[in-house]
Sequence to fold (317 residues):
Amino acid sequence: MGNCLIKNLEDLQSGFRELKVTGEEEKEDPSDFVLWKPKKEGEPYWESPWCDGRPGWHIECSVMSKKYLGDQIDIHAGGEDLIFPHHENEIAQSEAANGKEFAKYWMHNAFLNIDNRKMSKSLGNFFTVRDISEKYDLQVLRFFMLSAHYRSPLNFSADLMESSKNGLDRILTAVDKLKSLEASAKTEGLLETEDKNQVNALVEKYEAAMDDDFNTADAISAIFELVKVSNSTTDEESSLEYVTLLKNTIEKLCDILGIITEKEEVILAEEIEAMIAARQQARKDKDFALADEIRGKLLDQGIVLEDTREGVKWKRV
Ligand SMILES: [Zn+2]
Fold:
């Protein structure tokens, strides 16, 4: 902690020197930060009692937060790189202005690494969410991000995405099975206390994990245990009450995490491109019936094709 403080002060001293060079030498102390920046040629500015200029970037957050959320907020989130100086400065400003504790909880998430290396444009290991959406249903990405605690760094790799896809599939398949059992269940019997207790114990495990600073990784493992119980203890003989309890419980716990248990067929960009290529081939072969059939199939999935001079373009409608 001591070292850290000294380092920060040294950084500030050098930052302070740089500021002096840029003409903002009115700071009395290196740990002062700028609330209002004097205007610069060619930049937008506003009139103020201090000078023409614009808000410093820390104060933007305090002001917007006060306007839209009030003097005090429950949870303030952000990347761990913003803890200092940005969030500390937000606290200083807002608490000085409002005389109240600014945020009750701070949630700082760690970085996303790619194949155990920091994601950066210069390394070329840079993906956008849109890139990922071409290969995966974005629900897989959400599930993957929940598989680690938000405060620990998350490593992205093709293998890990595949295993997230399989894990999510296992849950969705179990819910699907429970739904069809629910539709066909004949036996009405009282719920066995033992069965009920087993489900409740796993719900408690899930809740304890979420109460522990949103430990989603452990919460997901409680869902997996429920899936295991479901797969190994339900069949056509199961009572409606038991099947419904399992189904509702898994769905509820997934819903809290934003995981949709409805199995919907999402057509991926890769598949669309492959179908477009097949349609182009069919047209080349003068098999227009097949070409139309492919276009129709895509339309059923909400994909509209547009033949342009630069080739075939598609969009989701
Ligand atoms: Zn901020």
